[in-house]
């Protein structure tokens, strides 16, 4: 019992604790902050089997605060901490009182927001940012990140080390007004990628990670609690996440195998989350009526799927138009792949396949199996078994996980057998 509760608390409290510690120690001492945070949870591992606290959250925060007190008191002449901590020391404010203020719940919320922006800085390589976000914001170890991103653990460790060095000069503050929009766009992207890593996990052992999805949703909600980061696209991003998360329980069968959208039992979709998504999307449209952002369009597509009684009656013509708009906004060829799938289900397989001919040399697909997997799907919809299997084999050679290719094969077989 206590192990399960500690695991849940680690996911919900780690980011709070690390945010306060980074504020106290400074971004350049982020490794020290991680060590102190981890030590608090290690103490829980030792203490809780014998005596479970009445308020576990408060217990963890108190332990972390006491650890921070010891570090700052013992090492104040050896390390330079954050400007705020230096100011406390100079003002002769009692350290214990300063830490009580720092660990106040109202302050922790703001600190988490600052930490999110700090981690999602625009000048850090995207592949480094996603791993770093998984580490600092979600508390994943280098081994867990390696499994999630299909990387060697040593590669992850090197990337984390380089990223932490790169961030050493960063300020633990929200960006200035003239930089906020660009920074917020980067934050949106990272939170979207974190959600997708939970929803469409690259890990073969754990194809779904509900906690990562919940983490991304929680951090997006934090953005909406601050006037400076509240905007229509943030609302749309949260709406998109809620629509997808509503379908989470229907995405696997009793054996834990992936269930594709066309076979999902829609009665398992969470109606309350779909309702929340609709409200958020309506707010987004009302807040910035002329906005045409990526997440607004994607949320509208997700809403159409959620509001359709069964797969057969999906409004493909509307989805096709929305994917055309998404391509105009993003310029991403992946929008064209999704549009082609929609065309195929709308009975226009020939047009869909023809629309992808110009993408064979697209740089987005040189190291990706996505184009061939899409063509395999379309040829299967068309009833061309030979071409479907040829592209499925090409997709397998170009990349993707064993699990992804198992799903592709199963779906192709079902389409070719006329069961869709």
UniProtKB/TrEMBL annotation:
For this protein, the record's InterPro entries field holds: DUF6596, RNA_pol_sigma70_r2, RNA_pol_sigma70_r4_t2, RNA_pol_sigma_r2, RNA_pol_sigma_r3/r4-like
Domain (RNA polymerase sigma-70 region): give its ranges.
9-76
Annotated ranges, domain DUF6596: 184-283
Give the top-rank taxon of the lineage listed in the UniProt record for this protein: Bacteria
Q: Which residues form the RNA polymerase sigma factor 70 region 4 type domain?
A: 132-167
List, alphabetically, the PANTHER family matched: BLL6612 PROTEIN, BLL6612 PROTEIN-RELATED
Q: What is this protein called?
A: RNA polymerase sigma-70 factor, ECF subfamily
Q: Which organism is it from?
A: Pseudoalteromonas aurantia 208
Organism classification: Bacteria, Pseudomonadati, Pseudomonadota, Gammaproteobacteria, Alteromonadales
């Amino acid at each position: 019992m206590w192990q399960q509760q500690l695991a849940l608390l680690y996911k919900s409290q780690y980011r709070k604790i690390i945010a306060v510690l980074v504020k106290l120690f400074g971004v350049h001492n982020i490794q020290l902050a991680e060590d102190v945070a981890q030590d608090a949870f290690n103490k829980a591992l030792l203490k809780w089997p014998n005596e479970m606290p009445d308020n576990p959250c408060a217990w963890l925060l108190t332990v972390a605060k006491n650890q921070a007190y010891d570090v700052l008191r013992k090492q104040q002449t050896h390390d330079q901490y954050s400007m705020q901590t230096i100011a406390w020391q100079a003002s002769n404010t009692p350290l214990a009182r300063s830490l009580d203020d720092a660990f106040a719940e109202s302050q922790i919320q703001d600190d988490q927001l600052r930490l999110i922006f700090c981690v999602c800085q625009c000048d850090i390589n995207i592949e480094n940012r996603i791993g770093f976000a998984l580490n600092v914001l979600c508390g994943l170890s280098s081994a867990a990140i390696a499994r999630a991103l299909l990387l060697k653990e040593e590669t992850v460790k090197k990337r984390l080390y380089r990223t932490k060095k790169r961030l050493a000069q960063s300020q633990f503050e929200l960006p200035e007004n003239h930089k906020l929009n660009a920074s917020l766009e980067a934050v949106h992207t990272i939170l979207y990628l974190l959600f997708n890593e939970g929803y469409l996990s690259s890990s073969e052992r754990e194809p779904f990670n509900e906690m990562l999805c919940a983490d991304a949703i929680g951090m997006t909600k934090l953005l909406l609690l601050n006037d400076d980061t509240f905007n229509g696209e943030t609302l749309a991003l949260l709406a998109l996440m809620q629509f997808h998360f509503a379908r989470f329980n229907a995405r696997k069968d009793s054996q834990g195998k992936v269930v594709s959208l066309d076979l999902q039992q829609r009665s398992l979709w969470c109606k309350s989350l779909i309702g929340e998504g609709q409200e958020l999307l309506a707010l987004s449209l009302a807040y910035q009526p002329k906005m045409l952002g990526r997440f607004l369009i994607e949320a509208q597509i997700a809403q159409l799927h959620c509001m359709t009684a069964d797969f057969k009656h999906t409004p493909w013509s509307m989805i096709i138009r929305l994917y055309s708009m998404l391509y105009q906004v993003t310029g991403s060829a992946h929008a064209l792949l999704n549009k082609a799938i929609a065309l195929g289900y709308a009975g226009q397989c020939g047009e869909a396949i023809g629309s992808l001919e110009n993408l064979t040399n697209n740089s987005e697909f040189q190291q990706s199996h996505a184009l061939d997997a899409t063509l395999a799907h379309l040829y299967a919809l068309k009833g061309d078994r030979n071409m479907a299997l040829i592209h499925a084999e090409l997709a397998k050679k170009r990349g993707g996980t064993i699990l992804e290719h198992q799903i592709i094969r199963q779906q192709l077989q079902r389409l070719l057998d006329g069961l869709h």
